[in-house]
Every structure is written in C-alpha cells, then in structure tokens.
Specification:
The structure holds 5 protein chains of 5 kinds. Chain C is α/β, with parallel strands linked by helices. Chain C contains 9 helices and 23 strands. In chain C, a hairpin with a 5-residue loop joins strand 18 and strand 19. The two termini of chain C are about 10 Å apart. Chain D has 5 helices and 4 strands; from the N terminus they run αβαβαβαβα. Classes of the chains: A mainly alpha, B alpha+beta, C alpha/beta, D alpha/beta, E alpha/beta.
Chain lengths: ~400, ~100, ~450, ~140, ~675
C-alpha cells in the first residue's frame, strides 16, 4: 500500500493558519516535548508530517489535533520555528471544515469577508424578523410607557425560533459528528458496525471530557514553573457559565425571559448573574490575552478565534443592559438592546457552531470518546488492528 | 650569612606589602584553603586505613559525591592518593601512607 | 620588552595559527605569533585522539608546537593580547599587552617544584573544571613553553613556591603587565572558536545536571593525561555502562540562536563513541541525531565502521533531559524512524555542543563579522577564502566559521599563501617596510625608539 | 598464555618496502586489527638490495619464515620489482639444497592500503609454520611460565 | 667511507627511548619492561620511557641526554616512522649530533595497535624490535643531506579552479609557473555552474576574474590541450615532458571559417542537452576565446575558408620543461550512473544534477520549464547517487569497488538548485529524496532552510531501502513515479508523481592513471589521490615535490578547492623559494677497496647515469671502479643485491645493518630480557 504525496495540502492549510509546517525538518522535538503525547498518539510531528506529504485520508482519520491543548511548549523549543502548535490549530480548523457537510466552515475559515458577511446577514435576518413581526402586529406590541419585553418579543415565539434555529445548528453538528466518527473509526471497523453497546458503555468518557476538559491540566507536564491550572480553570468557568446560559435559554427561556421581577434570592437571578459575571470575566480575559499576544497560543490568532469571546462579551454585556434598562423601566433602550442581544447571540451560534470554539468544545470530547470506542473495540478484538503506529 | 638574613628580611617585608596590596584576594583564597583543608582531612581520614570508593566516602563523610570525586582527583594528581583497584563500577582510592608528595 | 618588527603577525596559537606561522616562516618570512593563553596548542591540544585516523592528537599537535617554538623565524609570544591596532602607512602597528606570569619566563625550567609545593588546588579549566590545578603550575604536561604561571587572584602569597624554586629570582610577585608594539606588514587572524556553553538549553538541564557533560569533557576523560585517567561520570565517579550522545546540542537550533551546522560534532561523537567502546567494552553507546554529516575524506567509512561496531544510532533530536533519583540522566526523544516517543535512562549523557565565534575582531582590527553567524566575514568566500574586508588582514581556521582540524590546517596553509603573496607583491611595488626580501632579512628584532 | 606463546614461537621476518608493505603494515595498525605477535617488519627501500645469501643466512640464524612484501607494479624504483623477483627465484633452489622448506619464503606485493592481503599473508604463513615446524628443531629454551 | 677522514674511534653510546604515546603504546606494551630490557643491551647507556616523546618536554629529554650523558646514537620506539622520524631527526640535530645517528622503530602501528589481546607478546615484540634498532644504531654512519639546486619553476596540471588558484598563488610568490590544461579551455567544471554557494555569485564571473589574473600574470605560462607525457628527475629538478595538440585555426582567420559538417555533435558542456560543431567554444566569454577543433570528430573537408575547403592537421608538439615541483589539480568527473540506476538511461525523464543545472541555464527567461517538450510541474531530486554506496547493494565500478564515500557538495548543490528553481518557477512542486542532509559548511544550512520555506517536500530513505524510479502507468498526468519508503513518515511507502527526476550524482576523480604512473604517486581506495597524512601533510603526496590541489584529492566545493590549492602553493613556495632543495642522503656508495670493477651493478641499475666506471685512487694506486652520482641515484639498492663483492651499499640502509637487525631479532638470549 502506498500513499501518493499531495503537494497541495500544505498550501491549502496555510489558508487555515498553518504558519510554519513547511519549515519543519522532522526532528521530533515537539512530539517529545509534548506532555500529552502517548504511544498511540505521538503528536504533533506526525500531524505535521502528514500535512507535509498531503495524506488527507490519514489526517481525517486522526483525532490527534483534538487531543492538543496548545500549551506552546512545542513552539518555544522548536529548533526551526516551525510553530507545530499552530499547525495543530490549523489542522483543527481544517478538520472542522472537512466535517462540515455544508461547506460553510471552510468558507468562514478561509475568508474574512465571508465571516463579516455571515454575521451581517444573520443579524439582518433577526432584525427583519423583529421588524416584520411588529409590522404584522401593527406595532401595537411595542409598549413604551413601561417595559413589557415579553410583549415586545413574546417569549414563546422567541423560544420557538430559538429551538428551530437550534435544531438546524444541531443538524449541522450531528452531520459533522457522523463524518468525524466515520473517518476516525474506519481503521477499526473496516466496514463493520460498532455495536451500540460499546457506544453506550464508553459514553461517560464523553461526558466527563466535555464537562471538565481534564486533559488540559496535563499541559506543560511536570514542569512546575510553567504548570498553570489557571488557564484550565478559567476555561472551566467559561464552560459552566456558557452551559448555564445555554440551558437557561434552550430549556427555560419562558422562565428566564420574564417581565416579572423575581426576588433577590431567587435562583433564576443567581444563575443569570453567575453566568453573566463568569462570561464577562473570562471573555474579556481571553480578549486581552489575544490582544497582547503574550501566550504562545495567541501569537497567530485568526479572525475566527476572536469571534467567540467577542460574541460572548457582547452577549453578556447586552444581556446586562437589557436587565438594567428593564429595572430602570426604560422601554426603548431595553427593546433596542434586546434586539441587538438577540442578533449577536444568533450570529454567534451560526458562526460558532461551524468554526469557532463551539466546535472545539464539541469535537475535543468527541475525539476522546471515539478513541475510547476504538480502544474498546480493539480490546475486545472485534476487529483486527491493521492501523500503523502514529497514523490513527 | 648576614646577607641571607638580610634577603630573608627584605623578602618578608615585600610579601607583607604584597599581602596588603592584594588584601581581598588573599583573604578569599585563605578561606578557600581553610575549607579545602577541612574537607580533605575528613576525606583522607576515611581512606587512610583501607581503600574506599567515592560513594562510600561521600556517604560516610556527608560530603556530596561529586565534591569527593574532585578532591580525590586533585590529590591523585599530586600523588597524595592512589588508585588500588575496582569495586563493582567504582574505583577504589587510598591515601598514600606516608607522605606529603 | 622590546618592540618587534616582523613581516606577519599571527594572532592565535591554535592549530590554524601555528600552521600559518610555520608555513610563513618556512618561506623565510619573520612571524610573531601572539597567544593569549600561557601555552600554545589551542583547543586541539586538549583532545584525545583525532578522526578519522585515530591518531593520538598530541602526537600531531606537539611537534607543531615544538616546531613553532624552535623556528628561527618565529617569535612566540604567549600570555599576550593585542589590545590596539593602528594602521601605519601600509603596515600595522599592534599594541601588545603581556600579562604577568609572576614567573620569569626566561629562567623557569618547568621543573614543577613550585606546583608541588603550592598548598591550594583549584578546578582546572584545561580539564573542564573536573580536574585540579595548583595556583602556580605549568599549564599542562605538554605545554609550550614549559613555563610555570601563577594565578594571583587565588594566591595566598605564602611564599612556599619561592622557597622550593631552584632558580634564583624566578618567581616574582611584583611582576606587572608589560606593553610593547609589534610592527607587521600583514596580520593573520586565527582566533578560533568557543563551545556552546552547557547551560545554553534549559531543556537539557541548563548545565545543572552533573552527568550531562559536553564533548570536550569526554575528550579529557579519554586523554591519557585526563583528570581521572579513566572514563568516570562526574557525579560520583561511577564507570558508566550506558552513554548517550545528543547531537546538535548547540547547532541547527534557532531556539538557541544558532541556525548553522557546527560541522565537527557528528565526527567527534562517532570518534568518541568508538574510543569509549574501546575503553569501556561493556558499555552501550547511543547517538541521537538528526542527520549524520560525515562528509570528509574517509569520514563516511568511519561512520559505517562505527555502525558495524554496534554503536546505536537513533534518529531524533533529544527534546529534554532530566535526572532520576540516582542522578542518571533520562533523555526523552521521538524515535523518528517509527514515530514513537521514548524515555531512556543513561549513566552519562554527552552534549555534542557546537562552535560559536569566540572573538569579534571588529573593535580592534576593524574586521567585520558576518551577521548571521558572528564569525569573521570573508570578502571573497569562494575564490579567496582567507581574505577579510580589511586589506593586509587575513583569516585562518575556525575564526572563519566551524571547521574540523584537517580543514583548519588546509585553510591555514592557504592563509599563509595569501599572506606571503601579499607581502611579496607589496615588496615588488616598494611598499614594504625595508624593501627586504625574505631570504636576505637578517634583523629579527628591531628596537623602536 | 605463556605456554601458548612459546608453542607457536615461530619468528616471521617481513621485509617490507617503505612505500608499500611497511606502510601497509602501518595501515593495519591504524585499523587496530590484531594479528599474531611473532611477526617482525623491517622497513626496506627495495628488497632488490638483498643478495641471495642474505636469505639463507637469515634462516640459519633461526628466523622461521621470510615474507618479502615488495611494491610489485607500484614499485617507485625502476626495475626494483623485477630484480627482487629474480633474486627470490634464485633463492628457492639454494634453500632446497640446504633442506629448508621453500614455503618459508614468500614474495607478495603489498600496497599502502593492502590491509587484508597483509593479514592474509601473515595468517597463512603462520598456518604453514604450524604444519612444518620451526626452521631449527633444536631449541632448548626454558619454557617461561 | 673512504672519501672521508677516518673517524676517530669514538665509543658508541646509545640512548634508547620508548614512547608511551599518551597511552597509545603503553596501554598494551609494557614500556617499563622494554626500558629495562633495552637498558641491558650492549652500548646502551640510557634507556627511558616518556608519555610523549614528540612533545617539547620529551624532545628536551633527549637533547639533555645527548649533551649531558654523551649519548651519540639515538634509538626511539614510537609511532610509525612516517609520522615523526623527521621530528626526532631535528631533535638530534639541535643537540649537535649528526641527524642520521638516529634510528626510529615503529612500535605503535606495528605492536601496541595490532596485539591488543596479547600484551606480553606485544611487549616481547617491542623489545626485539628495539633490540634490532639498537643493533642497527651501532652501525650508523654520519650522513650529510644532499643539497640540490631547485628550479624556481613549478608545473600545475589542470586548468580548473584549483589549478588556476594554485598557479596564481605560486606566481605571486615570484616563482615561474607553467599551467597545462588537457582540454582546449580553462575553467573546468566550475564553468558549467551558474550560481555558486555559499555566496550566490555567478560561477563564470568569479572564474573570469580569476582567469584574468592568471593569464595576465607575468610568471605564468599557459598551455591548453596539453598533457604531461613524461617525468624524469627528482624534487627541485624534474624534467617534465609536455605534449600539446594543435588548436587548429588562428584568430585572424577563425571568423571567416565556415563549418560544413559535422555541426550536431553532442555538446559535453551542456551534458548533451545541446549540440555543437566540430569547431567550437563551450560558452561565450570562455578563455581562450579562440574556438578549438575537436580533432576526434574532425574530418578533412568539414571546414571551409572563403568557400575553399580547409585542410588542417593536428600536429602535437612535445617539449621539455625543467620544474622544481608539480601540483596535481586534475579534478573530478561527475559520477555516471549505470543504465537503470534510478531509471537513468531508461526513462528519458531521469537526468543528473550537473545536466539539470545546464537545463536551468538554457531555459533562460522562459516562463515555464520544459523538458522533452513537456512542461515540468513536479520534480524529484534524489541524493547520494554514486555516493555512500554499500557493498552488495550498489553496482560496483569497473574496478570492483563501490563509492563508499560522501561526495560532500551534492546536498548543498541540490538545495541550491531547488532554491533557484523555486525562485524562477514558484509553481513547480519539488520533492527531495535523501538519506541525510549534509549542509555542513558555512552558510549551507541557510540553503536547507530556504528550501524548506520554499515548500520543498523532503523524504528520507534508509541506505538499505533505496527509492525506485518507474515509468508511470499510461494515462497518468506525470510520466514518472518515484517510490520512497519514507522514514519521516514512519516507514510508509510514498509515491511521487513527477515529470523530471534529478539525480544528485557524486564526484569521482578524473581518471589520471597515466599521471599517477608518471609521477609515482598513489591513489587511495576511493581512487582519489592520496595525501601523506590528512593533518600533518594534507596537500603533499608521498613523492617529494609533488603536491595535490582540489578535487583530485577528494570531493570538495569551490571554496575548499581554492583553500587546498593555496595551501599547495604555500608548500611549493617553501620548497622552491630558497632556490635549493635538500634531499635525504640515502644513496648508493661504493667501497673502492672491495670493488673489482665487474660492472654487475651498472648492469642492473635502471637509472641513467647513476653509476659509472671511473678510475679512482685506492691506497695510492689507480683502479677502475664503480662511482655513484648522488643526484641521479634513486637510492633503490638494486645495485647492492647485484654486487658479488659487497662493495656497493646503500647509505643509511646497509646490508650489514640488516644482518645485525636479523641477528637481534633471532637472538635466543633476548628471552631473558623479554621476561625481565
């Protein structure tokens, strides 16, 4: 069996942000430096190498890019300044684009104009929906003497739209998940199906990985000087805030978006406050970091890397303003800022699910889950293992 | 005879002047010498009766092994310590019985 | 100290400087050789055996050192440095600072009685700090000149050396630095190189791991005059059973600021591996490398012999070295051939450190160095490799970039040819100091008022 | 080991040209290849300088074998190689008449890098001597222990 | 020595010195035992050992013994005499002794280094060798070196960059130089290059400037189409015979000449990528500018002048020159792969790197690179073709040897070519198939870095799994496929679809067997000319006065060739600058008392005028005996073996000395000494 070398992949990857993969002379320092590598997953050099020779199939079948948390040790010790971590990042983007059946991700990753166009378009759609709704109702639902948000934007209607939009996004994600699973599991399934039992038995891997991203804490290995649980913890906070908000919106919007003022002790308020504070804190921290480019992983930020924290911050800040204005009883400002809030959140979801951290959040645990499935399949010797080292 | 005495006197004065001129380095070197002599005494005591390896001396004296090795190397160079054979992966060293040289 | 008038001034008494001086002197030119250390011989004299012939290194170096010292056309000036240079018409006037030895160079017989009498041992730089030397000593056993030198900064002025010295007034604590001038029509820079310091790379222990040593240290271990007389590891004197070489530990690594190849490390590692397997027949020797660069005449066969001898070659650049509880260095490396990451414990790890420029002649000689590597810039690198950007100043050996002994010697010969031709051509147009021809010159030392 | 040494204590003299065999023997040394220690190499300019009686005298003195390592076609001297061969050919019949096994004398061309041929010659001659014994049977040498 | 004053019968006092050679000898040989045994030999007054006798201190020891202990014969057991005989001869001379009262015994290469497993045997052997050395020392005679006039004139063979550089540097020292070049034009292989590393200068620009300096130098005489055909004499005074072909047409007529045929000969300058005529010039601006006739393809009637057929004849002229030294700069030739190696000669898409460099040069300003009428999109370069070969894996050369050496320049040259390619044709995909990248030299690694940044795809093979080049199946876009087991991709088999395969061929020395024979120099097992010692005498051959420059000695790049050439020039200047050469006094000498004038010696001697019959006075009576002319005597000793009366002997190597040595080696009583 031989692989035909494809010289074009490396050129394509540059559009996804690979900034030094061509410089790599394959010394292996990065892989040996990385504390997250294992016998089964000796990255990042193997990924760089596959990129250099253009072995697309092997890259698609690999979960290694998702196992990297980009601590930057590989880059700071690289003797050729080949930025191995950034190549891993680029590969994550490239893989996301490959998983996306709509092709939208590829567009967003490789074109800044596409990103702006998408955001503007989605924002406009939301605006049009609002204007349309009020035009249809003869602008009677805009109460201005007091703040009547649920009249301005009837919660069940908004919720229905959120769920509809959510399911569209969910379809895209599920399609990506299926594509990824198919490629990753191919080396062990060899065309056969993995029994459902195994999927279910290994499911806890996904859940813990998703909830904690524990792997991250192994970054920098036993180097105590550099070891930093702070980054992991901040991220963990962000996730809790984000998930809280998501659950509140997706599951309990009718409870969350209300014209009634809950008393101060009410959990609805606390959940909202917690989520908002966490989101503001973490997203601004991330943005400042990216701005200063102090950490290795921020040195080569792409527009899509900025999207998520920017939107989170926008969403949280506008959310707060909606809250404040509502308390203050300023009707128009509440409605306007609410529209902006919704525009931002929808735009965020649309862009993020395809290309941003959302995808990362989603695919990382999935990668670990799929690896666990593979291990289980191998362990039970359901299929012979023909996969060469370093490629799966 | 008196000439010699004169010379010796002159020399003593000169050395004194020099010591004054190089006060700091001389003091520093004297400290070094004192420390070295103390360490050497400890090491030599252990190797006087029977040959010892570097880790044995280090363990018995509490001096780090690499320092023991350096002192033994130095003493070996100037004939104060001899190598007497091997014990496992380590050479055995012994203090030369009588002798300064 | 009298001022000197010579045809050529050679700066640096390593192998390149010595060979240039000899090749010029053999043609009848008068040469002054200035060396900053107390003995000539350079880095080469501290080596054990040399590749690919495995000749005893001192057997090649010492005759040249001896020849330099004995040559009637060479004035050897050790412990001297050029501190200033002036262009004097078409020739140069160099100001030389001779450091005090505190020992009368003319009368010292090199008997080493003072050395034996001295009470204080210091770490010896010649043995990379692992051996000892006295405050007053002959620099090393094959030093040229065989004259003692005293380290005043570590001296307690006890006078014991003076007491045992058999020569009257030989040891002289009152000596001071002396300045004099050398007038030369041409200058050969043979200022050599330095090794990458062992603490250059934090991932390799930052110089703190005792059993991680550089290759020059191993040269001393292997040399019969070395500190231990055997190959022992420095932490506790254990005879190592497993030794690893980490190639490119100072070369081809931008994270260290060195992008270039140091050219000698592959061969010296292979050579040392072969010598070590001779000295320690049971030891396992592993060389971790990226590319084996055995490019010289007879080098590839040397490499193949080493492979046949059972020396293990592992492709992969060592990423990190740490220590286990027993001070055994553990290397972490990706074995490129199969892509697996391994951690392997050895008794001793040798860093194949690279070559760095040791001296920037910009300030004194107005000779520029290359921006990318810091070595002396060659103005016509291909056709006239010994020319610098300063007329009358030539470069030889590793001052012009990493090279091995063979290449240094050849380049030293070339520098002598360039210099000789330059001197000859200047004479032809009547520009030389005295219009002397090399055969008829009889005045060696001329005093300047 | 001492007994072993005495048992094969044959002496082999090698007359080797400086430009060929002697440098070849030095090359063997540079490769650090071991061979029996009963081999003595004397440098010669060209073996053509040795008359026939030199060889006979050498055997009489108790040298068990002579290997003449000349430079063959690489001989830097005109006529040297041919002349050497002529003299050696004269020696053989003289050896026979004196009862000396002619296998004790061999002429071989060895160059500066002929390390393998050098070793072959040495080993082969030792085999021959093992078979035919010393040139003089009457050695009453005390056996060192 | 009848001609000399009879020596006063002085007592022979021998000093014996056993060098430990820094452990090289003493690790195996029991030096103390050697010292003791030697000390008990007759006439030995001093017996010592030292860590390193060749050191200053070691030499001082010997000098002191000569001066203080009255030692008047010195025997040293140390490394091979080739390394340090001269050193110690100097030591002995410095102490005021005749330098030939010294005998060097090799006990390193011939004892300690070959009997590691048998220290007792090695010690016993060393003792016997030293005893033989002492036996010879007892019979040493004082000798005086022979001083010969040196021609201040050198011959440089080869008009490539090394030859030019050597000629220039010798000439600049005021020594006359004759430079001969076999081909009709100067410049050698360098003229075929474009940009040269590490400076990126134009090769022919550099060359032109160098040639300009050479041809305008008053001390240099130049002969193209000239070859060395004869050599007589010795260092300082060689007579060389040179044969020069006719050039053909003079400058004033050449422009008017019309070539009828043949005009389509493959042009070797472009490795056959273009054709040339029988009257040719390799490149514009070459030197000499006059076109030359290719006599091998010349036929009568193939040239016309003003419409009339020209009748030319090659009349080689031979002449003699007296020179003091010879620099051999005969250069290299690129390795020619055998048919089938990596598809060479089978697939038209496989060419060598030198040819590719010409291809790039010929492509000029074209927008795309074409080969065989097809646009090149993918190129693979394969390293180590004809270098680093392994026995049994690669096809040997006609001499049965494989090229087991590294050719040193091909890695950087290849990367330089890829960089130039990328600069001019950025769309071309480049694959580089290698074993180790050896960009060792100053600035070379930058070529590697740049190639990487230019997205050259590197693939690495193991020396026992060579890549394969095959024709692509019909219908493929690219005509050839390269298969590589790539050890950067953990041994995966990778396939490269390519339009052109460039083989980075190594260097082989130009075949100069005739010159080797004429000059009596040696080639090593790699067929390159051998130096005496890579560090002690890196540009000298074993023949005094014959030096090496450039790639005749081994693979080198331009910079290294020039450095070697200059170093050789320095040696020539050392040798000839003084106007005389000193030779070792090892020549034949006749004892007239024993000579009966039979003339046997003259019959066997092969050297012109080395021995003659002349009347001499012996004990007051005149008789006709053999007389040796020292300058013509080669010192071979053929005469010694031929003399029926032992009347002729070789100074320094006398028959008596050999007999004494044999006696010492055979002596039984040495056993006691060995066991001491």
């Amino acid at each position: 069996m031989s692989t035909r070398v494809d010289p074009n992949l490396l050129i394509d990857l540059q559009d996804y942000g690979a900034v030094g993969a061509e410089k790599c002379f394959n010394c292996g320092t990065c892989t040996a430096m990385c504390p997250l590598t294992s016998d089964e997953h000796p990255f990042p050099r193997n990924m760089i190498r596959l990129a250099q020779v253009g072995a697309k199939e092997q890259l698609l079948a690999s979960t290694d890019p998702w196992l990297c948390y980009y601590c930057g040790d590989c880059a700071s010790t690289c003797p050729k300044e080949a930025e191995p971590g950034e190549t891993m990042m680029a590969l994550r983007r490239w893989l996301t684009a490959q998983y996306d059946p709509t092709g939208l991700s590829a567009k967003l990753y490789t074109s800044e104009t596409a990103v702006i166009k998408t955001i503007v378009r989605i924002g406009l759609i939301v605006l049009v929906l609002f204007i349309g709704y009020h035009a249809l109702t003869g602008f009677h639902n805009i109460v201005t003497n007091s703040v009547q948000l649920n009249t301005f934007a009837p919660v069940m209607l908004v919720w229905a739209l959120v769920l509809l939009h959510g399911s569209m996004l969910f379809y895209r994600m599920i399609a990506g998940v299926f594509k990824m699973s198919r490629h990753v599991l191919a080396p062990v399934t060899m065309g056969n199906k993995v029994p459902l039992r195994i999927y279910l038995e290994t499911l806890p891997v996904y859940i813990t990985a998703f909830a904690t991203q524990r792997r991250w804490r192994d970054c920098h290995g036993d180097d105590e000087e550099k070891h930093d649980d702070g980054r992991w913890f901040k991220h963990f906070l962000l996730v809790t805030g984000y998930v809280t908000m998501l659950v509140l919106i997706l599951g309990f919007l009718w409870w969350f978006q209300t014209d009634a003022f809950y008393p101060l002790w009410h959990p609805q308020r606390w959940l909202g406050y917690y989520a908002t504070i966490v989101l503001i804190y973490t997203s601004s921290e991330i943005l400042i970091g990216r701005w200063r480019k102090t950490e290795q992983l921020h040195r080569f930020s792409q527009p899509t890397d900025w999207l998520f924290p920017t939107f989170i911050l926008t969403g949280a800040v506008t959310g707060i303003f909606v809250h404040i204005f509502r308390y203050a009883g300023w009707a128009w400002p509440t409605y306007i800022i609410y529209v902006i809030h919704v525009m931002a959140m929808v735009a965020m979801l649309d862009t993020e699910v395809g290309v941003g951290k959302w995808a990362h959040l989603f695919y990382r645990p999935l990668a670990m889950y799929l690896e666990a499935i593979k291990a289980k399949v191998r362990e039970e010797q359901l299929v012979p293992d023909f996969a060469p080292t370093g490629t799966d | 005879m008196s000439d010699k005495r004169e010379d010796a006197k002159k020399r003593a004065i000169l050395l004194k002047q020099l010591r004054e001129a190089h006060k700091e380095t001389v003091a520093h070197a004297q400290e070094k010498l004192k420390a070295q002599q103390a360490v050497r005494r400890d090491i030599c005591k252990l190797m006087r009766e029977e040959p010892k390896t570097v880790p044995e001396v280090a363990e018995a004296s509490g001096i780090p092994a690499h320092e023991v090795l350096w002192h033994i190397t130095a003493m070996k160079k100037y004939g104060l310590v001899v190598e007497t054979g091997m014990c496992g992966e380590y050479y055995l060293y012994q203090r030369v019985k009588d002798g300064k040289k | 100290m009298k001022n000197l008038q010579v045809d050529a001034l050679v700066v640096g008494g390593g192998i390149a400087g010595m060979q240039s001086a000899l090749d010029l002197a053999d043609q009848g030119f008068h040469v002054a050789l200035v060396e900053k250390e107390a003995s000539i011989g350079g880095k080469m004299i501290s080596l054990s055996k040399v590749f690919p012939t495995l000749d005893c290194c001192s057997c090649i170096t010492t005759p040249k050192m001896s020849a330099v010292a004995h040559h009637e056309n060479i004035t050897l000036l050790t412990y001297c440095e050029v501190v200033a240079l002036e262009q004097n018409g078409a020739s140069y006037r160099a100001q030389i600072n001779k450091k005090p030895r505190y020992v009368n160079e003319e009368s010292c017989t090199g008997c080493r009685l003072c050395e034996y009498a001295c009470p204080l041992d210091l770490p010896s730089a010649f043995d990379m700090g692992l051996g000892a030397q006295r405050v007053i000593r002959v620099p090393f056993s094959t030093a040229v000149p065989q004259k003692a030198v005293l380290d005043i900064d570590n001296c307690i002025l006890c006078g014991k050396c003076e007491n045992v010295c058999p020569v009257a007034d030989c040891i002289d604590f009152t000596q001071t630095a002396v300045t004099f001038e050398i007038h030369a029509d041409a200058i050969v820079l043979a200022t050599g190189f330095e090794l990458t310091p062992t603490d250059a790379k934090a991932e390799y222990g930052g110089g703190k791991l005792r059993n991680v040593v550089d290759a020059l240290t191993v040269e001393r271990f292997l040399a019969p005059t070395g500190p231990y007389g055997h190959v022992l590891r420095p932490s506790d004197g254990k005879e190592p059973e497993s030794i690893a070489y980490v190639q490119c530990a100072g070369s081809r690594d931008i994270s260290l600021g060195v992008a270039y190849c140091s050219r000698i490390c592959c061969m010296y590692a292979i050579k040392q591996a072969m010598l070590l397997s001779g000295a320690l027949p049971l030891a396992d020797i592993t060389i971790y490398y990226m590319d084996i660069r055995t490019f010289g005449k007879g080098y590839e066969q040397f490499y193949q012999n080493a492979r046949a001898m059972g020396i293990e070659f592992v492709r992969g650049k060592v990423a990190r070295i740490h220590e286990d509880a027993a001070q055994n260095p553990v290397v972490r490396v990706e074995q490129i051939d199969d892509g697996s990451v391994v951690e392997r414990e050895h008794d001793m790890v040798v860093l194949s450190v690279g070559m760095l420029p040791s001296y920037n002649p910009g300030l004194i000689y107005n000779v520029p160095v290359a921006a990318d590597d810091g070595f002396v810039a060659q103005s016509a690198a291909n056709i006239s490799p010994c020319l610098t950007y300063q007329p009358g100043i030539f470069v030889a050996g590793t001052a012009a970039g990493p090279m091995d002994i063979v290449d240094s010697i050849v380049m030293a010969g070339a520098a002598a040819a360039e210099t000789a031709a330059y001197l000859e051509e200047r004479r032809a147009v009547g520009m030389a100091g005295n219009g002397r021809s090399p055969q008829t010159t009889s005045v060696k030392e001329v005093s300047y008022a | 080991m001492a007994v072993e040494t005495v048992k094969c204590d044959f002496k082999i003299l090698i007359l080797a040209t400086i430009s060929g065999g002697y440098a070849g023997a030095d090359s063997v040394g540079q490769l650090h290849t071991d061979y029996p220690a009963n081999v003595y190499v004397l440098p010669v300019v060209c073996p053509a300088m040795f008359p026939e009686d030199f060889y006979l005298r050498t055997f009489e003195r108790g040298i068990d074998a002579i290997l003449v390592m000349y430079s063959g076609t690489d001989c830097p001297y005109k006529g040297g190689a041919e002349r050497t061969a002529v003299i050696i050919n004269h020696v053989y019949p003289l050896m026979e008449t004196r009862g000396i096994d002619t296998r004790r004398l061999r002429l071989a061309a060895i160059c500066t890098v002929c390390t393998k041929p050098f070793l072959n010659e040495v080993i082969q001659m030792n085999h021959v001597l093992q078979e035919i014994g010393p040139v003089r049977q009457k050695r009453n040498v005390p056996v060192p222990v | 020595m009848p001609d000399k004053e009879p020596l006063p019968a002085e007592e022979i006092r021998i000093g014996v010195y056993t060098c430990q050679c820094g452990g090289n000898i003493s690790d195996v040989v029991g030096c103390a035992r050697v010292v003791k045994a030697a000390g008990e030999l007759g006439n030995v007054v001093v017996s010592r050992t030292n860590l390193s006798l060749c050191s200053d201190a070691g030499q001082a020891l010997i000098e002191a013994d000569i001066k203080e202990k009255g030692v008047n014969r010195v025997v040293i057991g140390a490394c091979a005499p080739s390394l340090h005989e001269q050193t110690f001869r100097g030591t002995v001379a410095r102490a005021g002794l005749n330098p030939y009262f010294y005998n060097h015994v090799g006990i390193r290469e011939q004892a300690s280094w070959v009997h590691h497993d048998n220290p007792d045997g090695a010690t016993a052997k060393a003792i016997r060798l030293m005893a033989a050395g002492v036996a010879k020392a007892r019979l040493l005679e004082p000798l005086e070196p022979i001083r010969l006039k040196a021609q201040k004139h050198a011959l440089v063979i080869g008009g490539g960059v090394a030859g030019l550089r050597a000629a220039l540097d010798i000439a600049r020292r005021g020594i006359k130089v004759t430079l001969i070049e076999k081909s009709p034009f100067l410049g050698g292989h360098m003229a075929q290059l474009e940009q040269v590393f590490p400076t990126g200068d134009g090769a022919r620009d550099l060359l032109k400037a160098l040639i300009q300096r050479v041809v305008s130098h008053a001390n240099i005489t130049l002969y193209t189409q000239a070859e060395l055909v004869g050599v007589q004499g010795v260092v300082g005074d060689f007579t060389v015979q040179i044969c020069q072909q006719s050039r053909g047409i003079s400058d004033d007529r050449v422009t008017a000449v019309n070539v009828v045929a043949p005009a389509n000969l493959p042009d070797e300058f472009n490795y056959g990528l273009t054709t040339r005529s029988v009257l040719y010039q390799p490149y514009p601006g070459c030197y000499p500018a006059t076109p030359a006739i290719d006599w091998a393809h010349y036929e009568d009637g193939c040239l016309e002048l003003n419409g009339e057929p020209l009748h030319l004849q090659n009349k080689p002229k031979t002449f003699d020159l007296a020179v003091g030294a010879v620099v051999v700069a005969t250069g290299f030739r690129p390795y020619e792969p055998p048919i089938g190696e990596y598809g060479y000669g089978v697939l038209p898409e496989v060419i060598t790197l030198p040819a590719f460099i010409r291809l790039l040069a010929l492509a000029g300003e074209d927008e795309r690179l074409e080969f065989n009428g097809r646009a090149v999109k993918n190129i693979a370069f394969v390293h180590c073709v004809g270098s680093r070969q392994l026995d049994g894996l690669n096809e040997p050369q006609p001499d049965g040897q494989v090229n087991d050496y590294c050719s040193r320049v091909c890695c950087t040259a290849t990367l330089q070519a890829t960089n130039e390619l990328h600069q001019r044709y950025p769309a071309i995909n480049v694959f580089d198939v290698y074993e180790d990248i050896r960009t060792y030299g100053r600035g070379h690694e930058l070529y590697y870095n740049l190639a990487s940044e230019n997205r050259v795809r590197f693939l690495r093979f193991h020396d026992d799994e060579l890549p394969e080049v095959l024709a692509a199946p019909a219908g493929e876009e690219h005509p050839a496929l390269v298969w590589v087991t790539d050890y950067l991709t953990w041994g995966q088999s990778l396939e490269l679809p390519v339009d052109l395969v460039v083989l980075a061929v190594g260097m082989m020395p130009n075949p100069v067997d005739d010159i080797i024979k004429l000059l009596k120099i040696n080639a090593g097992s790699d067929r390159f000319l051998a130096e005496v010692h890579p560090k002690l005498r890196p540009v000298e051959t074993a023949v005094p006065g014959v030096l090496l420059a450039g790639t005749a000695q081994g693979p080198m790049n331009i910079q290294e060739s020039c450095a070697a050439a200059s170093a050789a020039a320095a040696k020539v200047a050392v040798l000839l600058g003084q106007g005389y050469v000193e030779l070792e006094p090892f020549v034949a000498i006749v004892n007239p008392a024993l000579c009966d004038g039979s003339g046997e010696c003259i019959k066997e001697c092969c050297y012109e005028d080395a021995i003659s019959m002349q009347p001499v006075m012996v004990n007051g009576t005149e008789k006709v005996t053999a007389v040796v002319c020292a300058a013509n005597c080669a010192g071979c000793g053929v005469c010694v073996g031929a003399c029926p009366n032992r009347a002729i002997d070789l100074q320094g190597w006398t028959l008596k000395q050999y007999e004494a040595m044999v006696d010492a080696l055979a002596a039984e009583d040495l056993f006691a000494l060995e066991l001491a």
